[in-house]
Write a structure and sequence with these properties.
By secondary structure, the chain is mainly alpha-helical. It has a single domain, classed as Aminopeptidase. The protein has four helices and three strands; from the N terminus they run E-H-E-H-E-H-H. The protein has a three-stranded mixed sheet with strand order 2-1-3, covered by helices on one side. The two termini are about 30 Å apart.
Length: about 120
Amino acid sequence: MVASPNGIIGLYGDRSLTQRFERAVADRGERSWPVDIHGASDHAPFERVGIPAGGIFAGAGEHLTGEQADPDGKAGEPYDSCYHRAGDTYQTVDTEAVRRRLDVIADVAVTVVAGLL
């Protein structure tokens, strides 16, 4: 979930991966937030068997706080008002946010893989 139109850069998972994400986000002058998605994603089976997992979560139906809304978000509004609803289509995707979040994900993926070589 990286395309929420009123989303955040929420980070979850293994601490070493989360730290890599935090650095990559900060290097781009953005802010991240710790989130707990309660094992409700594709990463949960990996974590259950001891494989480190982590990532970015832009938010779903939760509401953006005033602090998180700075500078472009809408405080008090859901991260994604279309989450799992009929209007949840490619037309509601925040493509600029997706680009920024994918840059961070790619950065972290490359550093993790490079560390394995």
